[in-house]
């Protein structure tokens, strides 16, 4: 009983019991999060419709934000070029990042007081967590959000703002539009209020540490990944969606990560379990990847845009014709040992 308590609550040597690190969720809480994040990914796009080597694929992560009606996300370039026969990489493909948030507001007031309030959705980049680049290179990241409007989707990118006196270079840092249809989908209705600052920290660590690579594929597809909490306070869920050329979807691989931590919230050992194949259409908590294979691994912390990562821990694989590998043990303490990412800040 004491071990369970220490896992759920932080214990301060000087003040005794402090904030609750994480909370259990119900099966419906988890299912609601999974459905919402799946719907959100249907509106977001950061991949390339056509493969034109040399080119970098992208991985996009999304998770629930720290307040209701908000999502946080990260787009990362892949550390490896799509190359044609005989081509060599044109530059060192360090991962580059575009961090962002999607926020829904139910009743904003417009400048014109005669205009009736309408639901709004805002897409914003987080400058402090992003690699801002001069546009026109291999590391351009452009993210679009289709808000169900008749007009163009919202767009942001990782282009650096021009200095004073320089010409506008196309940088887009934020955008807002009517989102009535999104609210009707229930996209911004909170599933629950049980997420904590510690959960947000774990979401961020998983976004930076978990990676995938295709098996028996010539070109790496784009990836879209949902991160959310599991029923047990020590479990987190991952849904991996592979997106191929011309935005062809091939289903998903679903997995569960179990993580231990000490009384201060420093992550320790863990395990990744990939779920078996679904048995019926529309089923969640299972994998339905078609005509493809995917391996999952963990990388050590890197300085985005400056350092190459190394595969530190293999976490498993899924093959559409054979199913998942056996669960694999993980060591988050060792993975994060040489960084500040395992120091309590919540």
Key features of this structure:
about 350 residues, 19 strands, globular, 2 domains, disordered N terminus, about 40% strand, mainly beta, four-stranded antiparallel sheet
Give a written overview of the molecule:
With 346 residues, the protein is mainly β. It has helices spanning 2-8, 27-43, 180-184, 197-209, 332-335, and strands at residues 9-12, 16-20, 44-45, 55-64, 70-82, 97-105, 120-126, 142-145, 154-157, 174-178, 210-214, 222-229, 235-244, 248-261, 267-274, 293-299, 311-319, 323-324, 328-331. It folds into two domains: 27-185, no CATH class; 197-342, no CATH class. The protein has a ten-stranded mixed β-sheet. Residues 1-7 and 9-18 have low confidence and may be disordered.
Strand content: 35-45%
Give the structural class: mainly beta
**Contiguous uncertain segments of 5+ residues:** 1-7, 9-18
Helix content: 10-25%
Main beta sheet, described? 10 strands, mixed
Could you say how many structural domains there are in total?
2
Tally of contiguous helical segments: 5
Instruction: Report the order of strands and helices.
Output: HEEHEEEEEEEEHHEEEEEEEEEH
Distance between the termini: 24 Å
DSSP, total strands = 19
Which overall shape is indicated by the principal axes computed on the Cα atoms?
globular
Q: Strand arrangement, largest sheet? A: 10-7-6-5-4-12-13-14-15-19
